[in-house]
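Lecture notes, part 5. Sequence design as translation. It can be helpful to think of inverse folding as translation between two languages: the language of shapes and the language of residues. The source text, in structure tokens, appears below.
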């Protein structure tokens, strides 16, 4: 493990440690720095971190490195993803990283804030709430079900202090390239590929809202612990969201649709198409999420759709010009 840590002074603000420097981790580090906190970013690769943050290079599959990287922390943020979007990688890597962070949080008495998704619910009629049973049966969904159960077990048996923020499909500044609404895909003159029913309402998460939501959970009082929260979502049909972003750019609304039969046809040849089959129910019917509990507790978090569309359009324009 390599590090650029610096020793704190007796009057230093609390240390918040962000694990993962991807589409959410980097923005989260900047948001925490803006709150006047000390921030350490832990990443596997020897890559950059935001100015003002400490950098630690470590492998979270190693419990000893996880424990060392959390030294002095008040809050740990789990924003890491497995190395590939496959059931094999999720089943092999996610539990190992999670156990290492649970052990580190318990050892240092730190709160563990987890970025989570909505896979664990599986197909649901109506809007998912935080009380909806975790009943997914697919491989990646089961990983999330088991993770939720493990957090609760660790709280009861080991005294883990935890909370989780569950998000939908990402869009906006900071969205990674693997998202269908990544800026570089929205900048394509042919438009992005949209899945299944492009007119069905869908719960999207604006990345700056995800960042702000996790920062809020990390800095709030103890009442946020011991449960998961649905981070703010914006419910729009995929075609509508793409059209709004295009209109804000002064461009025609273009997109391409991938129907279910075409995904099935491509599945034997393209691994991503096989992986999409597990969560196809998120796209071939309305996919709704109730975020009212989080919004009631943190009314200051959450952009408007108009704000999110305008900022996303500017990001797409910058990407197109690069």
């Amino acid at each position: 493990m390599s590090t650029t840590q610096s020793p704190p002074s007796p009057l230093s603000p609390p240390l918040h440690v962000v694990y993962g420097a991807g589409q959410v981790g980097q923005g989260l580090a900047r948001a925490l720095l803006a709150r006047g906190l000390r921030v350490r970013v832990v990443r596997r690769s020897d890559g950059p971190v935001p100015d003002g943050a400490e950098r630690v290079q470590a492998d979270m599959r190693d419990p000893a490195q996880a424990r060392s990287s959390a030294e002095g922390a008040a809050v740990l943020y789990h924003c890491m993803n497995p190395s590939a979007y496959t059931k094999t990688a999720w089943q092999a890597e996610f539990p190992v990283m999670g156990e290492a962070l649970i052990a580190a949080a318990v050892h240092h008495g730190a709160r563990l804030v987890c970025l989570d998704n909505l896979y664990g619910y599986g197909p649901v009629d109506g809007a998912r709430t935080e009380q909806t049973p975790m009943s997914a049966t697919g491989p990646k969904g089961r990983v999330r079900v088991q993770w939720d159960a493990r957090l609760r077990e660790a709280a009861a048996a080991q005294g883990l202090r935890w909370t989780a923020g569950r998000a939908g499909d990402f869009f906006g500044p900071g969205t990674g390239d693997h998202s269908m609404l990544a800026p570089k895909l929205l900048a394509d003159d042919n438009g992005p590929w949209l899945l299944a029913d492009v007119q069905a309402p869908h719960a999207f998460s604006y990345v700056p809202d995800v960042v702000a939501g996790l920062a809020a959970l990390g800095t709030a009082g103890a009442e946020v612990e011991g449960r998961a929260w649905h981070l703010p979502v914006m419910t729009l049909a995929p075609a509508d969201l793409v059209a709004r972003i295009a209109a804000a750019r002064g461009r025609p609304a273009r997109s391409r649709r991938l129907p279910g039969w075409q995904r099935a046809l491509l599945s034997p040849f393209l691994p991503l198409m096989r992986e999409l089959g597990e969560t196809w129910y998120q796209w071939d019917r309305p996919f709704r999420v109730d975020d009212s509990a989080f919004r009631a507790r943190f009314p200051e978090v959450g952009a408007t759709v108009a704000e999110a569309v305008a900022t996303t359009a500017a990001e797409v324009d910058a990407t197109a010009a690069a």
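The translated text above is only one of many valid answers, since several sequences can fold into similar shapes. The first strand starts at residue 2 and ends at 3.
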